[in-house]
Specification:
Layout lengths: L1 H16 L4 H45 L4 H12 L4 E2 L9 E12 L2 E6 L12 E12 L7 E11 L1
Parallel strand pairs: 1-2
Antiparallel strand pairs: 2-3, 2-4, 4-5
Length: 160
Amino acid sequence: MPLKSNALKSLIRRVLRCQVGVSAVEFSLLAPVMTVGAISTVDAGMAVYDKMMMTQVLRSGAQSAIGSSSVAEVQTILEATAADNFTVAQGGTAAPGELLLGVNQYCVCPEAITTPVACTATCTGGVDPNQFYDLSATLDFDGVMLPAFTLSGEMTVMAQ
């Protein structure tokens, strides 16, 4: 009997010391983690890219607004610039994945900057009111690994 017991112990030792296939086992344990990490990194990169493109759209609208364009003209420029990288929402609501753009114009007198006035009004001392544009962009981002969240950007510019 001791001979069989020694042979069995020897076989168990050889099996436990065997290194064949260890790399395959390690890879099978690590591959899913690395895959999830890579997909999450790409997702985060796409969200950052979308945010940068939204900022670029708002900057082009701000550049147009500085030249004292009308609200409709600024909105048209925003939509035209955004169409290169996004599906632009039409109307006042956006479907998932559509970029919602907004332009709001208001005027204030230099002596009362918290009180909006008509842009055709004349302020104290015969001064024209300062004209401002609020530009906004909103996008519902839905990544592959990241949960859905909203990207938004706003910009206020004073027209001359």
